[in-house]
Design a protein that fits this description.
alpha+beta, 40% helix, globular, 3 domains, 12 strands, 6-stranded mixed sheet
Amino acid sequence: MEDDNGLVPHFVPMLGQMMAIVEKAKGRRLSSVEINETRDSAIVVMVPKEVAGELRKESKIRDLNADNIEFEWQTRRIEFTESAYPVFLLYVPVRKDFETVGRRLFDLEDLEYEFLPRNQSLFESVMLMGSALIPAINNDELEDLNSHTHHFLVYSKFFVNSEARSVSKKFLGMIEKLLDAGALGVSVENSYCFHSKTVWKALVNMCRTNEAEALINAFVRQNLTDDDQAFSLGMQFLGLPDCSMKNVIVDSITAEDSNFSASDLFRTFSLYLADECPSGTFRPGNSFSTSENSPRFKVYLEHTTVVKEGDMRYNPFGTWRFEIA
């Protein structure tokens, strides 16, 4: 934000560092009110734009955008605190003769991996995941999958939100190479996505022209529920928060509109943020609706609670909570 004299604000210390200091002192996550209070009480000096640019070059990390501080802190908190970073985890069932090919592929990409003998309970849990996309795994694929003798577990390096999409594109490309080389299937363990080979190939092709939609379809599961809420998993792979809505709200809407689907809402909203909305401009507390005649929601941002921090499915970039406007 530039003033009439061409000066821009520069926080001393960095705003992100101040958030981390206050959070550590409180021993817990900051509330929405506390995030805004910390920003409003931070020390800021006005400097020429050129000086601010030089100061940014000298810093190893970019400071938070004060104009949308809640979103910035939730999605970039891990850069300023000791936190659990997101990571990809792929399960790749194979036969023993695929070992050399797999190791070569993963070594070329400098990825961490394990090559392990068949684990029937793990395989059964993966098969239960299924996929929300069609066509589903057919009988021939299922027969091949059942014949596997070993599996790879493949890990990405840790990443922050600004790196997420490039990491996801890399892993989608890696999945294509694995299937072309003879892997029997691929599951994204962090988000319960176990697509058929046909679906994976279609997503690779889609990514060439519609990156955001392809990555969301590939790595995000929108139709999950527990006893308390409907929710998504996997938006950390696009550097964005997941979505959630209390079941009581879902039930109250579907009682009046049987066509309403929380998963459709989550998908539309996620695509909007990833592909249409200018980065960082949607603010916690803004409203959202999928169409003029659809229900309107207030959308609040909070830290992820559907899974605990440290769980491989945990999204450190937060969760959007939908409430009736």
